[in-house]
């Protein structure tokens, strides 16, 4: 949920999926690191445009195809919201569990103000792009 007092000024110009132009818009960015070391990056803007890719040091280890299954963006009078589903199988095949959790970092880039603003849900992180400050996520049965 991205609270926004100036909804008329949000930037949502990028309409092309997987375009780096999305980084000029208001965005929500999700970075994940799986137990297998695969690192999906998912970015969406208020228009619902999505950039999804895998970021890995060994390009040969990239999954042949990676795409987020479902992303839903809603715009309200004072905020915009993002919901997304990330399937485990395409990114590692193993669901996150307590002894092999996934790292997750969620950040927001706000461009609707006078200057760009950046927010992160990772406590104490200087930047949501820093993988050393990811939270752990796992699924219990």
Topology readout:
Blueprint: E1 2-3, E2 27-33, E3 40-44, E4 50-54, E5 70-75, E6 79-85, H1 88-91, E7 102-110, E8 117-120, E9 135-137
Written description of the protein model:
- The protein has 141 residues and is an all-beta fold.
- Helix content is 3%, strand content 34%.
- It is built from one helix and nine strands, in the order ββββββαβββ.
- The protein has one helix spanning 88-91, and strands spanning 2-3, 27-33, 40-44, 50-54, 70-75, 79-85, 102-110, 117-120, 135-137.
- The protein is globular and about 45 Å long.
Low-pLDDT residue intervals, each spanning 5 or more residues: none
Give the strand tally. 9
Roughly what percent helix? under 10%
Mean pLDDT across all amino acids: 83
Structural class: mainly beta
Put the structure in a nutshell.
The protein has one helix spanning 88-91, and strands at 2-3, 27-33, 40-44, 50-54, 70-75, 79-85, 102-110, 117-120, 135-137. It is mainly beta and 141 residues long. The strands form 2 sheets. Strands 2, 3, 4, 7, 8 and 9 form a 6-stranded antiparallel sheet that branches.
């Amino acid at each position: 949920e991205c609270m926004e007092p100036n909804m008329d000024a949000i930037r949502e110009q990028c309409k092309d999926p997987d375009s780096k132009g999305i980084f000029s818009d208001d965005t929500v960015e999700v970075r994940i690191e799986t137990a297998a070391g695969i690192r999906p990056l998912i970015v969406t803007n208020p228009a619902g445009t999505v950039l999804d890719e895998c970021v890995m040091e060994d390009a040969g280890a990239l999954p042949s195809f990676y795409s987020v299954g479902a992303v839903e963006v809603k715009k309200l009078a004072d905020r915009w919201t993002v919901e997304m589903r990330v399937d485990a199988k395409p990114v590692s095949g193993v669901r996150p569990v307590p002894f092999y959790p996934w790292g997750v970092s969620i950040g927001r880039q706000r461009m609707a103000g006078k200057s760009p603003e950046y927010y992160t849900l990772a406590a104490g992180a200087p930047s949501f792009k820093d993988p050393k400050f990811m939270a752990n996520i796992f699924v219990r049965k």
